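[SOLVED] Predicted holo structure with pyridoxal-5'-phosphate

Edit: marking solved, answer below. Original request kept for reference. I posted the sequence and ligand SMILES and asked for the 3D complex as structure tokens.
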Amino acid sequence: MSFENSLNYAQQLDAQDPIAHMRDSFHIPQQEDGTDEIYLCGNSLGLQPTKVKDYLDFELSQWQKYGVKGHFTGNFPWMPYHEFLSEGFAELVGAKSSEVVAMNSLTANLHFMMVSFYQPTQTRFKILIEDHAFPSDHYAVESQIKFHGFDPEDSMILIKPRENETSIRTQDILDVLKEQGESIALVLLPGVQYYTGQVFDMQTITQAAQQKGCKVGFDLAHATGNVAMQLHDWQVDFACWCSYKYLNSGPGSIAGCFVHQKHHGNKDLPRFAGWWGHDKTTRFKMENHFNPIQSAEAWQLSNPPILSLAAIRASLDTIKEAGGIKALTKKSRQLTDYLRFLLKNELGDSIQILTPEAPESYGCQLSLTVDTHGLEGKVVFDRIEKAGVTGDWRHPNVIRVAPVPLYNSFTDCYRFVQILKQSLKNT
Ligand SMILES: *Cc1c(COP(=O)(O)O)cnc(C)c1O
């Protein structure tokens, strides 16, 4: 596709955007002069859908009016409340409703999933993750290995990009699996790498790893709501994601979890159990014989925080209104391609884009290394912020920006690139 580097053209793209109106369903942070910020940080904390307040107010009033009876009252009773999110989650990750559940937080879920799916033996005990994994994932893996009495030193395989490359080649992952697959118990990789924005070939990796007898899990923190997936068809064993990034459900909101249906009936799987995972028809008999629900819900521990789930429900309804993940990825592709075009066209050699460019290898985030022309990186970033852009700067000179199809516009991209260019002037 050929683009033009002009405000007029960006505005034209906005006028033709079939989901441009969705921006009005979000609260866009305001600058001091009352104009919208250019918010490009949805990969870190998604903006608040306008529906959230209504949904929360509703639950607060249910609680006021009905007290404990709120568990059974109205269209959205609290007892089965998490079930109202299953369809939305399932669509986003390509799963059956019975394979997804909202519970806990992301890192907690990684641990609970490893309790079930990391079962090291003397010959098969390694976990394959990436060298530059999100620290929480690294800590979770390392501590699970130690918990089982193994040594992270020879039990963690850390895969990284080749010298002078920024993303990890699928072939390199396949080679590790070929060489060491028999000793790998678990492959735990991101769907989308948080730092570079690289999308992993989840299907190919899953297939190759499972052929070697490994279990496969994905951290979808940056993938859910960003790229389309088919976890069920791909036979992924488990996946975890948070809901506050591209799912716009508020800081620290409850996370999501996928467990493939092939594991649901397996009562031999080790698991840390809680009463909310127990068969719903007999849960309140309060007996002491754990009988897991035949779905991903079996991994739940506690009755969940309804206020957080209400925010997720508001967000999932907003995504549905936009036309679901299909509509989002369609716009996302054009929006991100436009941003990439503008960056190259306007800034040329002053920036290097770390995010890969091959189709299927990127979502809506671009990570840039900026040549600051001798300026302190912080100075450049402060200028950008002052000009109304919220992005994410990593010392010394990496900036991550995510034009989010739900609420960002082509004009946002245009303005951002102009501001970045201006901020790089050594004056
Ligand atoms: C955002 C993110 C986390 C954060 O974990 P929490 O448990 O939600 O605090 C973990 N891992 C990855 C890959 C992330 O992107």
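OP edit: The longest helix spans residues 324-347. Thanks to everyone who chimed in.
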